[in-house]
Amino acid sequence: MFDWLKRLFPNASKFTLPAREERAARNTDKVNLKPYTPEPKKYLGQLAYLQLSQFEILTNELKYAPTTQYKAQLSEAAAKCFEQYRSIAKLIVASGTDATDAMDPFVERIETFHSRISGIDFYETIIKIYLVSGLLNDFYKRLAIGLDATTRASIEKILSDKTFEKYATKVLAESMQADPALSSRLALWGRRIMGDVLLELRATFDNRKLAGVTKTAQLTIEQEREVNLSAYSKLEPLVSELIAAHSVRMDAIGLTA
Fold it and tell me: What number does CATH give the domain 36-252?
């Protein structure tokens, strides 16, 4: 997955990007996502289903928690995920749209995403949600810049909750200390997850909109390829920052990204 991404971005030679050594230029504040924020129904619909699917996955893991303490704490973290979903659903309803209608177009894509990175046990599932929710929450907070000020403030508040993050870091650190062999397995799993999250992130955008090409334009295969490369190049600085944040999360539990 990472090899594919590394090949993809350098090939966009026709588009100007900051030099990789210019680290200041790689801050996400330099990436103006406002023109590319989906319209509110689409933005909120996919974010709501991501939160709902996360709640579903965590509640399913309750029966696999290795201790009663972990199970009790996980139930509280899962409940907080559901609160986040409900808060987003209320924003959808307040805009005059049924929440399920807003979520339905994204159900298949998000379910497919989760099925590609389905953990084989409790620990793989916990680190998966820890990394996925962290990356996507960072991304959606950045993408909220194109929403109205009130909705944006609500989203930033909703996605800033750290209940599950605190749970995951505690459980994973304790479990890996008790079983050192678990560390190498989870480190490999964490690297795999990153690639799939980047694909989910990309699916949020319209390549033509990113490249400044109208949806109705008739393009050749080569022109379509150039449009895709242009879109990817615009997101590359943001992707670099999200990867850096991923590394920080891995460091927090004692793993190398």
Answer: 1.20.1260.10
Q: What length is written for the chain?
A: 257
What is the rounded distance in angstroms from the CA atom of residue 100 to the CA atom of residue 6?
A: 37
CA distances to 33, 144, 183 from 178, rounded to whole Å, are 43, 40, 10
Q: How do residues 212-236 score in pLDDT, each as one tens digit?
A: 777 777 777 887 777 777 777 777 7
Q: If we measure between CA atoms, which residue out of 156, 165, 153, 56 comes closest to residue 103?
A: 56
Check: pTM over 0.90? Answer yes or no. Answer: no
pLDDT at 30: 58
Instruction: List, for residues 158-216, the tens digit of each pLDDT value.
Output: 999 999 999 999 999 999 999 999 999 999 999 888 888 887 777 777 777 767 777 77
Q: Encoding tokens for residue 31?
A: 């990436």
> Interhelix angle for 68-94 vs 149-159, to 10°?
170
